[in-house]
Design goal:
With about 190 residues, the protein is an all-alpha fold. The chain has one domain. Helix content is about 45%, strand content about 0%. It has nine helices and no strands. The two termini are about 20 Å apart.
């Protein structure tokens, strides 16, 4: 999807500060059935379970249904974790440290607090969009999934070392090769 396809929508802005349109699962759901099948196989879930309309939507991935941060924010009546007196809490710190697509959660919370989620959302569209073709890419698309530009987006440009390191540590088939197979554009 192109960045122009989205307007600020709180369903697509996770309480933790993740930006749903740049999620590999969110992207795969909106692409070809073949890409959804590859992603589902990689995640070892049925293709029918690969459905998500955003972290705050009713239709979301099973993993997101068990999100500690979402449940906590809901119980406290908060829109974003950064509004909490306990921010950043231990579960959020552990979540942030686990994977490279979460590196910027602290900056996201600060920016949301500073300019509001609508302006932050618009900034994230640009941050995750290819500079050449405006396609939104995930943190794990090292090259643009539409035009093969490198890097795929500003996020990848800033964090490519951490992303590559994370992907190379996966066991079995190289995770980098595995993700490339899932996300590569169909020739």
């Amino acid at each position: 999807m192109k960045k122009d396809a989205y307007q600020p929508d709180k369903k697509l802005a996770a309480v933790c500060g993740l930006f749903c349109p740049a999620c590999g699962i969110f992207i795969a759901q909106r692409e070809s059935l073949e890409k959804r099948r590859k992603m589902a196989k990689n995640l070892q879930i049925p293709v029918e379970a690969l459905k998500c309309d955003g972290c705050r939507a009713e239709n979301r991935l099973a993993y997101c249904d068990t999100c500690k941060m979402s449940a906590c924010a809901g119980e406290k009546g908060l829109n974003f974790c950064g509004e909490c007196e306990e921010y950043p809490c231990t579960p959020l710190k552990e979540f942030q440290a686990a994977m490279p697509h979460r590196i910027e959660l602290w900056q996201a919370q600060a920016r949301i607090k500073e300019v509001g989620y609508e302006k932050w959302f618009e900034e994230m569209l640009k941050h995750y969009s290819c500079r050449q073709c405006n396609t939104i890419n995930s943190a794990y698309h090292l090259t643009c999934r539409s035009c093969d530009a490198t890097p795929s987006c500003a996020y990848v440009d800033l964090h490519k070392a951490e992303i590559r390191s994370y992907l190379s540590k996966k066991s079995g088939q190289s995770a980098l090769d595995s993700f490339k197979n899932i996300t590569e554009k169909k020739n």
